[in-house]
């Protein structure tokens, strides 16, 4: 599981992104992080994959205590995490297949494993027929699917998504959310920061609301609760 114990994050300018946050996320959950812009959602997410470190308190991801990780252990931690961003940042000179394969190459996977796994993931996200296309030939929704495939290809335990539907039209956003639901159904824990009020209200999954760096609401079947 993921566990935060009395975690605070203070930035060099004195601003607190998180204040005394305690949170437990169990394997297999689908959790939405909601709240106004600047509330602390992205700060929390960056702590989980060790892009940043907590100023106080402890963050645990399974057996990893993040405050004491060596550099080699950070790489091991990140193999358990698949991260999906609003800005997908695909490699423009690589095809869909090559963009996804690159994530496996980065962790030292064999050519045999890459040839086996990448087509499986492209089929899951509905991009088998686009495997030889380049990013500029894809729609916004298709690019986001490549980003999701890239996050999935190393069989992570956790999928962490920061506003993955933020740049998409409502219909495409719903299709992308169906994909996340399927990923969760297959066993991955999904943690998603979002402003997508309609999606959160419709899905009725666990909702953790953050305001001014503090958790103010944690509901098993929650709603968005903010004007978006």
Fold blueprint:
Blueprint: E1 2-10, E2 16-25, E3 30-34, H1 41-48, E4 56-61, E5 64-65, H2 71-79, E6 81-85, H3 96-105, H4 111-124, H5 140-152, E7 158-162, H6 170-185, E8 189-193, H7 197-203, E9 206-211, E10 214-219
Parallel strand pairs: 3-8, 3-9, 6-7, 7-8
Antiparallel strand pairs: 1-2, 1-4, 4-5, 9-10
Helix pairs in contact: 3-4, 3-5, 4-5
Q: Main attributes?
A:
globular; 10 strands; ATP binding; cell division; cell cycle; nucleotide-binding; ATP hydrolysis activity; alpha/beta; 228 residues
What is the helix fraction of residues, given as a range?
25-40%
User: What summary fits the major beta sheet?
Assistant: 6 strands, mixed
The N- to C-terminal Cα distance equals: 30 Å
Fraction in beta strands:
25-35%
Mean pLDDT: 93
Tell me the overall shape.
globular
| Low-confidence blocks of residues | none
What's the SSE pattern?
EEEHEEHEHHHEHEHEE
Count helical runs: 7
* Quaternary organisation of the protein chains: single chain
Subunit structure: Homodimer. Forms a membrane-associated complex with FtsX.
Membrane topology: Peripheral membrane protein
Keywords: ATP-binding, Cell cycle, Cell division, Cell membrane, Membrane, Nucleotide-binding
Family: Belongs to the ABC transporter superfamily.
What does this structure look like?
The chain is of the alpha/beta class. It has a domain at 91-155. The chain has 7 helices and 10 strands. The two termini are 30 Å apart.
